[in-house]
């Protein structure tokens, strides 16, 4: 028994010594990447003092918005969008510097800045998440061609970037994309057909993009789609039948468009839908093109429905039970 106790004591003492001995070997921020971030900071205006932790005395893996790899110490995530400032009123200001290319392929990158070119993305081929929401990209003429060079991209968020055109793509390299948000821009054209080739897409947000015409027929191939938001556009065809054959959709927002005619047959097949907004389907105050007709009893088959909005239309009759 005494020998056993001695062995246990020796084990705990050895473990404690090793723990203290390894304390100095903890993975710290990569020094060259720390210097890169400090140079990057020098070119920014920070009205809300969000980068106050970006100082030499603090390990850069502990800096606001910076996440490091636990094994290598390389910066793997850089998120500078202020989560408490959805309107962007206190955003960081300044140009996205080419010095950021010295980072070792961060897997996620978020900014609230402006850029005249996205060529700085070309060396970040391992990038899986790109969030440039609220960044001013109005002077970037080939934004889509540069982003198409990122084959590992899974999430792309370019909301409110002042984009005004979409270059046609003959081939989509980021075919693994699961989240695409290009909402609140000024595209003034048809929804691009290349979106139909994103077979892994789970969430698609095109609201407020000044899109015109019909929903692309190719969207019927997006069988993994769970969230579709095309609100506040100028889409003006009848609602396509295939839209309600996408049985994986749980959130569908079509409001504020010029869709015409009745809700098509097959509407009752959308059994996975929990949120449905078909309100205000006409920008004309007299509502000549509003969804019209009787509300079908088939709506009672939508057993998972939590919220439905059919206001500002020309429906008739009783609400089904």
TrEMBL record:
A GO cellular component entry from the record: plasma membrane
Which UniProt keywords are given for this protein, alphabetically ordered? Cell membrane, Glycoprotein, Leucine-rich repeat, Membrane, Receptor, Repeat, Signal, Transmembrane, Transmembrane helix
Is the keyword DNA-binding assigned to this protein?
no
> Does the UniProt entry include the keyword Transmembrane helix?
yes
Xref: SMART domains? LRR_TYP
Where does the UniProt entry say this protein principally localizes? membrane
User: Signal peptide span per the entry?
Assistant: 1-18
Instruction: Supply the Pfam families for this chain.
Output: LRR_1, LRR_8, LRRNT_2
Cellular location(s): Cell membrane
Task: Tell me where in this chain the Leucine-rich repeat-containing N-terminal plant-type domain is found.
Answer: 31-69
Q: How does it sit in the membrane?
A: Single-pass type I membrane protein
Concerning its family, UniProt says: Belongs to the RLP family.
- This chain belongs to the protein called Receptor like protein 30-like
Its gene name is LOC111011580
